[in-house]
Amino acid sequence: MCAETVIATDAPSGKANVDIRHLQSFLAVAEERHFGRAADRLHLAQPSLTQRIQQLEQDLGVALLERTTRRVELTPAGELFLTRAAVLVGEFDALVDDVREVGSGASGILRLGCVGTAAYWLLPKIVAMAGVELPGLHLQVQSEMLTPQIERSFSERRFDVALLRPPVHSAELAVRPLLRERLVIATAPGSDLATRLTNSATIPLTELADEDLIGYPRGSVVDTIATQHAQRLGVRTRIVHRMAETSTVLSFVAAGLGSAIVPESARSAAHVGLLFFSLDDSPTLDLSLVWRQDDDSRLLASFLRLAMRFRGPDLIDASQEVPA
To answer: 171 and 290 share a domain?
Structure first.
């Protein structure tokens, strides 16, 4: 049985003029070992496929295929070309998929900042849903931050989106409330406060008048709201330690160094044994989604639509939709 090369030429000078269609056509023929089946697979007429392979070999200046009366065989050069071409076509297909994902707002990186309590339960829920619905999204998260720190980070272009507690002072930022919650008291079992309130679920702020308290930094949203509430009631509180991270606040409470006024979502923190009491007539504070108003990223818009599905029913307002 005689073997015939499809085409052979002298090696040309300069670079080969090979495009992705040449590689895809060669792969189909090499894998099918048959021009007719390869043409059907590519939805091409067989003469068009033959012409592509001939152009490829002419550009490369080497025969890649030998055709017998029954099937097509690869030359040694064809074997090498098959191995490398398969990698290139695979990379090209992946590139096309990635570009389409990015273009549709389903793939890419978002830098997210958040206050401490958001990281305890809301953010993990959002990230879990994004993993299913936006599998190409990669979040770079910085947590345990205060609102003023997050706002400064936006001005420095370090964040694309954030979960924080208003107020926000920059007119360049869009703010959409997600959740509204109350303040609660956290204390350790065996503390004087816990002993006095054994059978209580809700307590007045006056119970904290003589208590050592662990607080947030002055000027933080939680500290400002708690201080204003105490002033309205004529209660003087005693802050003995201040720190920015809710996790550290709760660690100090667990160590018996004092009680703390914290957002209700702090109940989700992994501090086993801490006791939480609701405050009578507690003020509320919001947890909001924030981003730059001039950011027209489709990926950001996709993430915002997903995150807004966690909005509390009392905060749903058709006038506060996120970008399409």
So the answer is: yes
Structural domains counted in the chain = 3
The CATH number of the domain holding residue 58 is 1.10.10.10
- 290 in the same domain as 201: no
Do 173 and 293 fall within a single domain? yes
Q: Are residues 192 and 272 in the same domain?
A: yes
pLDDT > 90: percent of the chain: 66
Other CB atoms within a 10 A radius of the CB of residue 2 amount to 6
How confident is the model over 291-320, as pLDDT tens digits?
Answer: 999 999 999 999 999 999 999 875 444 334
Q: Are 241 and 175 in the same domain?
A: no
Same domain, 154 and 128: yes
Q: What is the 3-state secondary structure (H, E, C) of the chain?
A: CCCEECCCCCCCCCCCCCCHHHHHHHHHHHHHCCHHHHHHHHCCCHHHHHHHHHHHHHHHCCCCEEECCCCEEECHHHHHHHHHHHHHHHHHHHHHHHHHHHHCCCEEEEEEEEEHHHHCCHHHHHHHHHHHHCCEEEEEEEEEECHHHHHHHHHCCCCCEEEECCCCCCCCEEEEEEEEEEEEEEECCCCHHHHHCCCCCEECHHHHCCCEEEECCCCCHHHHHHHHHHHHHCCCCEEEEECCCHHHHHHHHHCCCCEEEEEHHHHHCCCCCCEEEEECCCCEEEEEEEEECCCCCHHHHHHHHHHHHHCCHHHCCHHHCCCC
pLDDT in tens, 196-226: 887 777 889 999 998 999 999 999 999 999 9
Let me know whether 187 and 278 are in one domain: yes
Is 137 exposed, middle or buried (CB count within 10 Å of its CB: 0-12, 13-18, 19+)?
Answer: buried
Owner of token pair 């290139």: 88
pTM above 0.70, yes or no: no
Containing domain of residue 32, as a range? Answer: 4-103
For residue 285, which amino acid is it? Answer: L
